[in-house]
Amino acid sequence: MDIFLFYTLGILILSLVAYRLWIPERYRGVFFAILSIYGIFQQNTGNWLINLSFIFLTLGFIILSWIFGYLIAKTKHTEGTFLLPFAIGILLIPFFGFKAMLSFSPVPFIAKVFSLLSSHGSNIFMPLGLSYFTLRGISYLIEIKRGTIRPQKFLAYTLYIIFWPTLFSGPIERPKPFFDQAVKNAYPTEEDTVIGFSRIVTGCVKKLGLSSVFFSIASPYLSLQANSEAIDLSGWSSWQLWICITAYYLYLYFDFSGYSDIAIGVARMFGYRICENFQWPIFAVNPNDFWKRWHMSFVSWIRDYVYAPLGGSDAGYVVTSANILMMMFLIGIWHGLAGHFALWGIYHAIWMILFVLLQKKWPSFGVPTSCFGKFIWWVITFQIVNMGWVLFLFDSSSSLAIYFKLIGIG
What we know:
Blueprint lengths: L1 H21 L5 H13 L7 H27 L8 H21 L4 H10 L12 H17 L7 H8 L13 H10 L5 H33 L15 H32 L17 H7 L2 H12 L9 H18 L4 H23 L9 H23 L2 H11 L4
Helix pairs in contact: 1-10, 2-7, 3-4, 3-6, 4-5, 4-6, 9-10, 10-15, 12-13, 13-14, 14-15, 15-16
């Protein structure tokens, strides 16, 4: 994400001047597409051959998914039954391939080779924005199949897939609202400029200020990852762990939401209004409320394209619970193909399922109305989420050791 900041702050002023003063209206989409294509050339693994392979992989993804879009649009409903799943499977290969490279032995050996080839020991083993443009490509194909959009011209599609403000870490914009704006080519208004600039400032305060403070507090805790196979907590007290774990949660939030604010602000200054990604999830008052506020563009993507097609919450408690479990499991492994990520997703699924069950018996459960009730539920929810980040960082045995230490055992 620091690459995004460097890239954005370096060219933002020049590109804004060009976009507003020199580029004719009909060529603004072309100009922005060129900026986005330039963004994928910011691969910086330290080895020109790896950089080049990542660039070609990204361009290959764009071309192949664009072709799939036309093929899906031209097939009849019955003939195209298997084309969409086939296309999605093909598009997911790079994502899961790189995730596997970083997760499974002896595949991590390949990642080690990548690191040795790098001139500065880079740990960048994936094309920039791979997770995000994969999801955008899949949603494009699904929406074509549903009939909500038509296949786009190649340049317009390229702009959508690698829209440079959101290229590296989202938000994950949906195709229809994006293409509607791209077609209109609305000129940025004074309101866009003011709101966009304020969002960039807010994001910088979060990402460069607050997140840095909390990261410095959490850094001793994060250093435990280096020895996660034999984690040593002998020099830690319970209160030190509590402080560091909480600081990590706040660092994660301010870092990621700060990036999202900057991306939204940059896009707004060019006249594009992209979706929100965070709505102060640290103030959520129940587990479901948290997941309506955290990484909203990704969670809603899973909800609309996985959870809802499986039946959502309309097929009884057992099916709803299974759907929640599937949704959260996928959210977990999206972050990495490792057991602790899967457990992190399942951990949240359990809390959400329990919450749904209790709400069926007591509809007002978890929906506080008084200030005191909201405070109590906020504390409970905050700690549920806070404890989950332990599983996000560490394997099950190390997480168990940390949980025992937090309550004074060990």
